[in-house]
Design a protein that fits this description.
- By secondary structure, the chain is α/β, with parallel strands linked by helices.
- The protein has a single domain, classed as YqgF/RNase H-like domain (Nucleotidyltransferase, domain 5, 2-Layer Sandwich), CATH 3.30.420.140.
- The protein is 49% helix and 20% strand.
- It has 5 helices and 5 strands.
- Strands 3-2-1-4-5 form a 5-stranded mixed sheet, with helices on both faces.
- Strand 2 and strand 3 form a beta hairpin.
- It is globular, with a radius of gyration of 14 Å.
- The protein starts with a helix and ends with a helix.
- 38% of the residues are buried.
- The mean pLDDT is 91.
Length: 146
Amino acid sequence: MERIKNTVGKILSVDFGDVRTGLAVSDPSRFLASGIGYISPGGIEKTADAVSEIAREQSVSAIVVGLPKNMDGSEGARADRCKKFARMLEERTALPVAMFDERMTTMTASRYLNETNTRGKKRKQVIDTLSAQIILQNCLDRLKNM
């Protein structure tokens, strides 16, 4: 978080996944996170290229990548892969990239989709974007209190 704390402008949030990668962006004042969709380019390299291009298109000043942790706070293979992905983004964009604990975000997104009765194909299309949005909103809230 320290890496992006002193930046100004929009932040891109990435919920990196092997199949789909959800994306969200903040407003320039960093008050509100909005989902902007998901991508499925296939493979970590292609996904890093696609996200880097989106970061340029959105004119963001920083990127946040969700860090999957186990409930006990430990990190596994998925966390290592997300860290590698974050390093790739930093190399490609020259922007500060921070990792943000994404524990409970998919569960929160699932609960919301259950409450809104979102099912089937639509649910798969929305859950990764919503997870990225929740990660970013949590990050924005934390930045306000730093």
